[in-house]
Specification:
single chain; alpha+beta; Ribosomal Protein S5, domain 2; 9 strands
Length: 308
């Protein structure tokens, strides 16, 4: 057996803000993908994945929810017959490795599943997000359900608020100089500790005010510019966002990248922001001149996501 492919995702804008109900924009990232496969002789990563699926099976079996039910018997049989999730999506990198796995399990084993082909009303999207949140909480302790939703639908998703999400049309890529790229920190980031740091910071009134005012407003402006194709305005807003993140989210930025971050803002060669919860993994970069950014960041591994 070999299941359909599910892709990685990139949250272009909205990290942490979406926890507090501001806007977000997530896009599928087709460079990385995963699929359910089966083997009689499991070794290495496939063996570990099979064991993880068994733990995930127990999590789903213990869920008390009226929202969703699964064909647990078939799921357990497939695990016992050597099923594993074959994935190129790096784990702990902020690009949705657990999201793709959750999407693949829902697709294969959910009873009365909402399919990608039907008319996806707002209610159906919210229901899917809620189901995925329940499923993915196994991996992160708390999950918005957004990563699996993005992977399952393979569409850009605009998060207006917790109760208002919709598929988004993003401008088609141009052959211009500008780009969105990933910068590899070569460190693993863990979601849960980073979210805990954020939640502790939210106890501070000044931090809360910054999130609800400066951070949310700047993020919303970036999303608006990106969706409308206002590239010039976008870079001004992304620069402001990069400064805000450097000032207020230092613990989420690996120490080795504080200077790199500052350098981008000082030279305007590129602007960096968090990709997911931070703490390692990928850092997201925006530049008006990709070649210039590549020269400035020649000591690091970059991956192209989108061209302006």
């Amino acid at each position: 057996m070999k299941g359909p492919l599910f892709y990685a995702k990139i949250l272009l804008f909205g990290e942490y803000g979406i926890i507090k109900d501001s806007k977000g924009l997530a896009i599928p990232f087709n460079a990385y993908r995963g699929a359910l496969k089966s083997s009689k002789n499991l070794t290495g990563k496939a063996q570990i994945s099979n064991e993880n699926l068994n733990r995930f099976y127990k999590h789903l079996a213990s869920l008390k929810s009226n929202e969703v039910s699964f064909n647990l018997k078939a799921f357990k049989e497939d695990i016992d017959n050597g099923m594993y999730f074959d994935s190129s999506i790096p784990q702990g990198y902020g690009v949705g490795s657990s999201g793709a796995l959750v999407a693949s399990i829902y697709d294969k084993y959910a009873a009365d599943k909402i399919t990608v082909l039907e008319n996806l009303t707002r209610d159906k999207l919210l229901k899917l997000k809620q189901i995925f949140s329940l499923m993915e909480s196994f991996f992160h302790g708390k999950s918005s359900g957004l990563d699996p939703l993005n992977s399952y639908l393979s569409l850009p998703i605009l998060i207006n608020s917790k109760e208002n999400i919709e598929p988004a049309g993003i401008p088609s890529q141009k052959e211009g100089k500008g780009a969105v790229f990933l910068l590899d920190s070569e460190q693993i980031g863990e979601t849960e500790p980073m979210v805990n740091i954020f939640m502790n910071k939210m106890k501070n009134e000044g931090f809360r005010k910054m999130i609800s005012e400066d951070f949310a407003t700047t993020t919303d402006a970036c999303i608006e510019d990106f969706l409308q194709g206002n590239v010039k305005s976008l870079f001004g807003n992304v620069k402001s966002l990069s400064k805000l993140v450097l000032k207020n989210f230092k613990p989420m930025i690996p120490t080795a990248f504080h200077k790199v971050w500052e350098n981008g803002i000082a030279t305007n060669d590129y602007y960096l922001k968090l990709c997911g919860s931070g703490g390692g993994g990928y850092i997201l970069g925006f530049t008006e001149d990709y070649e210039k950014a590549q020269k400035s960041l020649k000591d690091y591994k970059l991956e192209l996501v989108y061209r302006f």
